[in-house]
Design brief:
Elements lengths: L1 H9 L11 E3 L6 E2 L17 H4 L2 E4 L2 E4 L4 E2 L4 E7 L3 E9 L20 E7 L6 E7 L5 E7 L29 E7 L2 E9 L10 E12 L4 E4 L15 E7 L6 E15 L15 E4 L3 E11 L2 E7 L28 H4 L22 E9 L2 E9 L12 E12 L2 E12 L2 E14 L3 E13 L4 E14 L3 E10 L15 E13 L5 E15 H5 L6 E12 L4 E11 L9 E4 L5 E3 L6 E11 L6 E15 L4 E14 L5 E13 L6 E15 L4 E14 L12 E4 L6 E3 L3 E17 L2 E13 L9 E12 L2 E4 L1
Length: about 800
């Protein structure tokens, strides 16, 4: 009997289940040690594997907007555990209103749905994070957040009540998610492989983490940690995943071969550019081209990415943009996957890195990542001969490095270089951001550009200094910046050289809980614009702007805004260098413009809540006496834009975006300028991976013949400096219709099939052609496959 008793007491006993630790954000329990488990969950949206019973439990969400610091009205539970190769997250979101917003959307288009966003700061620096987001069906959005002191103030509508900086969604990562709507809300299951993200080296480490839930029914944002709006950093208010150890990412090798082919057709045209009716089209059948990318993880935090003969053709055309001010360049965002990978490592002030200057590289490579407190990005590219002024291959080199000084603070260096034949360009920059007492931040930047165009050599500066206070109610944003007229960068983007700016912005937000009006923000900004040489030599100011705005947020997600602008614009002779006036006897005299133009503008804006099937926002500016740049006289202007999303089913969505600007002469009411762009997008999501999309864009760029309207009334002519001949500024009306059809199969980033067809129709001159005529069509096919190997 004693022997049996001894055997029983010493026999292995079954493991007792351990109650998972519960971490309430509202109770300040934001340091989490999730269990490391040897297991693998099936990502099917059902949290039924035994590992979920052992996961750390995160609860106690707080409301972030419209009121921070109060308990969230909806219950949200996050489950966290990790295996040697991946982080697993489970979401249980309760919706007491019984109205979950969810659609079978395409990637990165889930923000009209209910969604949960994960901010994963793998370097725990309080400044940058990888962002993963899911809607109730588990449809993904992803990108990066690099907090750089950007402001939600400025523009035409001034400040709003929110201060959180939005993530950049241009990057795509490989991860798994699946969700389902339940009777009391929704559940989502997520797996993030360690080989898909960069993280610190070391056996044991700590990551920053936070969760933000968006509830469209109430218009609320809710966070796990009790984050406050009145702070210079959202990420520095994150919680922590501690004692993560023995993470196995391996040396990941991604190989993405790509095959592309296209057929282009164009209508023949006469010598004057007009189409030839009935003439056969000319077709160009391009040879299939094989290219590809290689991405190799040198370490868990440092990645090498190379591409050879890549496909850099645009699957989706850029939306047509117009510049109301002729001095302003037009900025188009980068869309090409190679340049978007690790884009947060190449974040630089004043657009000193603008990779669209690299037109069609033959070869490009880059190394990006973070080592300790040091962030680094290096890029080299050999561009196509078609982009050269000399028939050579332009060469680009970019080096971006920064060092963390503490949560939210850093100092950075930038070096860019470009060579094309005998021409060269170099830019060196020092910049940074310092956060003080959590709500104050100072930003600075100083750059020198050396440009050798072969005949002219210049050295010129660019500089900026800013101060920002992100208080709970009172906010300020001060800035001074300047860019020399001789500053040239061939690896960056300069919208307008030769200017200096002073800006002073003050705003105050009132908030009321349980009221129809939930927030009211009053904003007053004063801006002064100088010619650069006048600013540095104590010369006069050129433009003055006083903007006052009042923006209100209402219960349920409604918003409305009013604004009044009082401005004065000084004459800039650089715009009218070759403008002349033609007299009745045929003689010409220089166009000399006039004095300052006083402006008075009125603004109204508004938005609806994001309902399940519909949302709308719109903006209108009317100027009774504003600037008519075309003739340098007072004008009556009208700016308007609107954006409508309509989602009749879970799979079908429509988007209509419209932008319109018009200038009229006060003297007789005639129209000087019309610039208008309308875009209609129709998407049908056959399944999570398959989509059909049609995008149709209609643009008008029309201008009247120009005259010296406010002075002599004489017609304006343009002198060609190379020939000395004068040309009348005759009226034109250019209209264009672009339509693109696209079939997409996208099971994961890297593996894709695109089949696209596009047509271009135009009416170059209203007087010459009565109807639209097709002038070009393109058929495009792209196939790529992501082959991933982990060493």
């Amino acid at each position: 009997m004693l022997l049996l008793t001894s055997l029983f007491l010493n026999a292995p006993q079954p493991a007792r289940p351990i109650d998972p630790p519960v971490h309430s954000g509202r109770a300040g329990q934001i340091a989490v040690q999730p269990p490391r488990l040897i297991g693998k969950a099936t990502i099917d949206g059902v949290l039924d594997e035994p590992e979920w019973q052992q996961a750390a439990v995160l609860t106690g969400f707080s409301q972030f907007t419209p009121f921070d610091g109060v308990p969230a009205a909806d219950s949200t539970t996050i489950l966290v555990w990790y295996s040697p190769t991946a982080l697993y997250l489970g979401i249980r979101a309760t919706d007491h209103g019984g109205s979950v917003h969810a659609t079978l959307a395409t990637r990165d288009h889930i923000f009209a749905d209910d969604n949960v966003q994960i901010f994963l700061s793998t370097f725990n620096d309080g400044r940058q994070a990888t962002v993963f987001a899911v809607n109730p069906f588990g449809i993904q959005a992803d990108g990066a957040l690099n907090e750089n002191g950007g402001s939600n103030c400025g523009g035409m509508t001034g400040c709003n009540s929110q201060t959180r900086q939005r993530p950049d969604l241009s990057q795509d990562f490989v991860w798994d998610s699946k969700g389902r709507v339940t009777p009391d809300g929704y559940e989502v299951e997520i797996r993030i492989p360690f080989k898909s993200i960069r993280f610190q080296a070391g056996k044991s480490q700590t990551w920053g983490i936070n969760f933000l839930r968006v509830v469209q029914r109430s218009g609320q944002e809710q966070t796990w940690t009790p984050a406050r709006q009145g702070a210079s950093s959202f990420l520095s208010q994150s919680g922590r995943l501690e004692n993560l150890h023995d993470l196995d990412a391996g040396h990941v090798l991604d190989i993405v071969p790509t095959l592309t082919s296209s057929v282009s057709g164009a209508a023949p045209s006469a010598a004057d550019g007009s189409p030839q009716p009935g003439a056969p089209w000319k077709y160009d059948v391009g040879k299939p081209q094989l290219g590809g990318d290689i991405r190799y993880g040198l370490t868990p935090n440092l990645t090498l990415h190379a591409t050879a003969h890549p496909d850099f053709s645009q699957v989706e055309s850029d939306v047509t943009q117009f510049s109301f001010d002729p001095r302003q360049g037009i900025f188009y965002p980068e869309k090409r996957p190679f340049f978007l990978d690790g884009v947060e490592q190449f974040d630089a002030p004043a657009n000193l890195i603008y990779t669209r200057n690299i037109v069609q590289p033959v070869f490009a490579g880059k190394v990006a990542g973070k080592v300790g407190d040091n962030q680094i990005g290096m890029l080299a590219a050999v561009d196509s001969r078609d982009a050269s002024n000399y028939g050579d291959n332009p060469v680009f080199g970019i080096l971006r490095a920064s060092h963390d000084l503490g949560p939210g603070s850093r100092v950075g260096l930038l070096w860019t270089e470009q060579h094309d034949g005998s021409e060269s360009n170099r830019v060196f920059d020092v910049d940074g951001r310092v956060v003080i007492n959590k709500i104050n931040s100072v930003t600075f930047a100083g750059a020198i550009a050396h440009d050798n165009s072969g005949s002219i050599i210049t050295d010129a500066p660019l500089w900026a200094l800013g101060y920002r206070r992100d208080g709970q109610h009172f906010r300020v944003n001060y800035g001074v910046s300047g860019i020399s007229p001789d500053f040239v960068t061939r690896a960056g983007f300069v919208g307008q050289p030769g200017v200096a700016n002073l800006s002073f912005d003050h705003s105050y937000t009132w908030r009321w809980e349980h009221h129809r009006v939930t927030a009211l923000t009053a904003d007053v900004s004063l801006n002064g614009h100088y010619r650069y040489d006048d600013f540095v030599n104590g010369g006069p100011i050129q433009n003055r702007q006083l903007h006052t705005n009042l923006n209100a947020s209402f219960q349920g997600g409604w918003g409305a805004g009013l604004g009044y602008f009082r401005e004065s614009f000084g004459y800039d002779p650089s715009i009218y260098t070759n403008f002349y006036l033609r007299h009745p006897d045929g003689s010409v005299t220089p166009f000399t413009g006039g004095g300052a133009l006083p402006n008075n503008d009125y603004v109204i804006s508004g938005n609806t809540p994001v309902w399940k099937h519909f949302d709308l926002n719109a903006f209108v500016l009317a100027g009774l006496n504003d600037e008519n740049y075309n003739e340098w006289s007072s004008g009556r202007i009208l700016f308007a834009n609107a954006n409508l999303d309509y989602r009749p089913t879970d799979q079908l969505r429509f988007n209509v975006a419209y932008n319109d600007s018009r200038v009229y002469r006060p003297s007789d009411g005639s129209r000087v300028l019309l610039q208008s762009v309308g875009v209609v997008t129709v998407e049908y999501q056959l399944s999570r991976a398959f989509q059909l999309r049609v995008i149709s864009q209609y643009s008008i760029n029309a201008r009247d013949s120009l005259r010296d309207d406010s002075r002599t009334g004489l017609p304006i002519v343009i002198r060609d400096p190379s020939t000395g001949l004068y040309s009348p500024t005759t009226a034109f009306n250019n209209q264009r219709l672009l339509t693109n059809f696209l079939f997409t199969y996208l099971p994961n980033p890297g593996t894709v099939i695109y089949i696209g067809y596009g047509t271009a129709d135009q009416r170059p001159n209203l007087l010459g052609f009565d109807r639209f005529g097709a002038v070009r069509s393109d058929l495009f096919v792209k196939v790529s496959y992501l082959w991933r190997k982990r060493g």
